[in-house]
Design brief:
- This protein is α/β, with parallel strands linked by helices and about 190 residues long.
- It has a single domain, classed as Uracil-DNA glycosylase-like domain (Uracil-DNA Glycosylase, subunit E, 3-Layer(aba) Sandwich).
- It is built from 8 helices and 7 strands, in the order αβααβββαβααββαα.
- It has helices at about 5-10, 45-50, 60-70, 100-120, 130-135, 140-145, 165-170, 175-190, and strands at about 35-40, 75-80, 90, 95, 125, 150, 155-160.
- A 5-stranded mixed beta sheet has the order 2-1-5-7-6, sandwiched between helices. The chain has a two-stranded antiparallel sheet with strand order 3-4.
- The longest helix has 18 residues, at about 100-120.
Length: about 190
Amino acid sequence: MTKLTELREELHACRNCELYRDATQAVFSVGRASATVMLVGEQPGDREDLEGEPFVGPAGHVLDEALEQAGIARSDVYLTNAVKHFRFERRGKRRIHEKPAVSHIEACHPWLEAELAVVRPRVVVCLGATAGRSVLGRPVKVTQERGRPLDVDAPYEVVVTTHPSALLRLRDRGDYAGELRRLADDLAVAAAL
């Protein structure tokens, strides 16, 4: 049994915060333990919570487009989230994403640290401010820090970029293609490291 398999099994028993009560399941990661690039998102969404795998919903499709534009195979990266359970607000039958609190990020941080220790990536890409806060241990302003290697005291490089879900809101406004290109460019910077 691999260490990632052991972590996955242990995660399903996680009670570090209250999010486990309403979520369908804890969502671990996908990817090879030998991946050199780790992509860290915010938290599972509705589809991810139901299917048990990160980035399989609408934001995952945007990420797939950006990876393709950057010339990166999804199978070559390790995908995970800073928070492992879906935080949501129920509106009728729908479950609407609700941003995780700092306490949720902190409760899940040992899981991310364990993944980093097993995978040992060369580059960690923080997809959004929540992921940035988890990886860097401080608040992150994506607009000010995106797309370049950050000076960190870690055995890996860190690049911050926008979360793919932010692009979903741009589809009807015409900004989608340009922002998708920026996301792909940021991913290419990370891959080049």
